[in-house]
Amino acid sequence: MFKKVLASFTMAAAAGALMAAPVCAADAPQTNLTMYEAPDPTYTITIPETVAVSTTDTTLVPITASDVSNLPDGKKISVTYESGNGVYGRLYLEGTDPDDGTSYLMTMMIAGTAGDFRMGALEKQIKGMELASFTDNGTENFKLYPAALDYPDGTGNLQIHKGVPYTGYMTYGIAVAGAQPSGN
Amino acid sequence: MLKKIIRKFSFLRSKKLLAVVLTAAVLAGGAGWYCHDRFGSAAPAEPAQGLVIADSTIDWWGNSSTSDSQHTAGTKIPGYETLYASHETGLLKTNLINPPDNACYFQYELSLDSSGTILSASGLLPPGKALADSVITDIPDPGTYNVCLAVNTYSMDGSFQPMNGARIKAVLVVI
Fold first, then answer.
1. Is residue B48 part of a domain?
2. CA B115 to CA A174: how far, in whole Å?
């Protein structure tokens, strides 16, 4: 008998709750809470392992951006010239004559997204120069040529010496930056 | 009387044994020294400039489309915007990787932008690997810091020649 009474009460309570629920939902004011933080941008920048610099012409050096995602509006991936072998903010290729052991260096002229060629040093700094920028996947080229091309009658380090293997390296700066042109 | 003789005899035996062991040790040491001197040059070449191959790495085969299908000639540098580290353990929680397509070692060096203080420097990381337990030795207080993540690259031909590298501007969040 007691069990039957208990069961009846339970059923009645459940039915009441079902009927009351929509009334409560409709009446009670509520605030929906949401939260979202945009994921970090992801990307891969591919820089050339080696670049064979032309001794007679301008060399195009490709920089590639791939797997670009979550880049916020108004932002870009900026690839800059950070450093390399050379002093006074210049980029040198260095070489030694295998016959007589004489050391030579050749200053490189560089042009990035701004378009003008620079040699480095003082007001013509190349450190921080933007070489390529991306808002999506793609490839851009920056330009290099040996300063000797500007001095056809140059001697010493203003001349490319035949038979001398010149080498050097570059370090690139990579950052997500504002979409305005950056660098010098 | 008999006991005394036995004791003396066993004492002499243990002394002889000791002498034999010492002689064997000296001979073994000498042989080892000779072999090291004689055959030491046959050992594999160590990386120059104090660089060592990172021993705490995990496989990383990437999750990007370019990893499998489109091979782009050159060195792939992954972008990092935010790095996370635990102040309690000093562990960097972000995996620093060397994409599998690369043909060079990576060496990561994390430094504070403001002072240039180096927080962490990894060993040489082969392609297809990620640093597993990168520890920041002198971790700053919890907070957010502008950092520079230098990616130094070295050839894999045994000469460990420096190659073109990159410096990534990022933010370090110490929790």
1. no
2. 19
Question: Does residue B51 fall inside a structural domain?
Answer: no
**Phi/psi class of residue B86: alpha, beta or left (left: φ > 0; alpha: ψ in -120 to 50)?**
beta
H or E stretch including A35? none
Quick one: pLDDT at residue A87? 78
Q: Could you tell me the domains of chain A?
A: 42-178 (2.60.40)
| R_g of chain B computed on alpha carbons | 27
Check A173 against B72: CB less than 8 A apart: no
- Interface test mutation site (partner A, options B65, B69, B77, B109, max chain A beta carbons within 10 A): B77
pLDDT for B53: 73
Instruction: Please give the residue range of the domain that contains residue B168.
Output: 57-174
Taking the whole predicted model, whether its pTM rises above 0.80 is answered as no
In a domain, B50, yes or no: no
Q: With H, G, I as helix, E, B as strand and everything else as coil, classify residue B163.
A: strand
Domain identity same for B22 and B70: no
Interchain pair B104, A49: CB under 8 A: yes
